[in-house]
Amino acid sequence: MGDIESTEFNLAGGGGAGRERPVDPGPLEAERAAEVTLRPKSLDEFIGQPKVRGQLDLILSGARRRGVTPDHILLSGPPGLGKTTMAMIIAQELGTSLRMTSGPALERAGDLAAMLSNLMEGDVLFIDEIHRIARPAEEMLYMAMEDFRIDVIVGKGPGATSIPLEIPPFTLAAATTRSGMLTGPLRDRFGYTAQMEYYEVEDLTEVVTRAAGILGVAIDPDAAVEIASRSRGTPRIANRLLRRVRDFAEVHGSGVIDLGAARAALIVFDVDEMGLDRLDRAVLDALIRGHGGGPVGVGSLALAVGEDPGTVEEVCEPYLVRAGMVARTARGRVATATAWRHLGLEPPEGAPGLF
């Protein structure tokens, strides 16, 4: 692997790696091709996020009318909601090429300079997880975003010279799952910030139905709703569960996904009616049965379930908090009444959410 991890796309692409959990919102290495196939290619095809789509349509249409490059765009939100797909659509709508890289790949200013110098006028540069970009590269990005030029340092020590390098006007489309970690100067240079929200079941049902049509598998409406309701508000998870249910229907059924096949398949893959998988339930079990409902630190929970604390905190905990099953307090994590009942237990007096 080289210093810069990047790819050039015209219509589709993307990537990433994640753990083999069916409800992990992160992309899985083995499923890149399938995700590319299922990605919408235009704003009209994109399901959900109506506010973001409407605002982006205005920005892109206005730029096309004036014959200029659009303002830089920041796509913010949890993983799996379509930030990379939206960046691809931006390039498609503008009729330009898309260059892709990630924040961790830009370790030095020279990495970014090499990428910027290869841009053509009007290109879209997509930087995923931009909050993880190295500080030297970030400082170079300031000038590139604002003045469309960079200063390349040649030599070292007293003999070093700065050579200004003009770069063609471009649009930076950056994605972040942690907008709070962006520095103020970088955040202020984006002309538009799109906040991607979790999906409602109705929108996810449409996502599942569309994906089933692309995959060439028949699916009953009730089965599509069942898969959507267990997808944690995330299209990437919905598409992944659909593929696993399709496998089950082809191996153990007629190939048609009906409600019975969907429920049976999701039992096989340990995804319950709330969208929790084995690890999520193990965390709740450790919190409730092992520590009496808390409060308990994330390190102790991770030790109890045999996982890395980062996995518990970044992969499991966000959904458990959003689902109202875990509350964060100054003393640690506490199980709510909803969590107790989900495990079939009676919540004690004083449990959060008990009225």
Describe this entry's structure for a reader.
By secondary structure, the protein is an alpha/beta fold. It has 3 domains: 7-195, P-loop containing nucleotide triphosphate hydrolases (Rossmann fold); 201-268, Orthogonal Bundle (Helicase, Ruva Protein, domain 3), CATH 1.10.8; 278-342, Winged helix-like DNA-binding domain superfamily/Winged helix DNA-binding domain (Arc Repressor Mutant, subunit A, Orthogonal Bundle), CATH 1.10.10.10. It has helices at 32-38, 50-66, 83-94, 109-116, 135-147, 184-188, 201-215, 221-229, 235-252, 259-268, 278-290, 298-305, 309-322, 337-342; strands spanning 7-9, 73-76, 98-102, 124-128, 149-154, 161-166, 171-176, 192-195, 326-329, 332-335. The strands form 3 sheets. Strands 1-3-4-7-2-8 form a 6-stranded mixed sheet, with helices on one face. The chain has a two-stranded antiparallel ribbon with strand order 5-6. A two-stranded antiparallel ribbon has the order 9-10. Strand 9 (326-329) and strand 10 form a beta hairpin. Helix 4 (109-116) packs parallel to helix 5 (135-147) and helix 8 packs parallel to helix 10. The chain is globular and about 70 Å long. The termini are far apart. Residues 19-199 are annotated as: Large ATPase domain (RuvB-L). One of its GO terms (biological process) is DNA recombination. Belongs to the RuvB family.
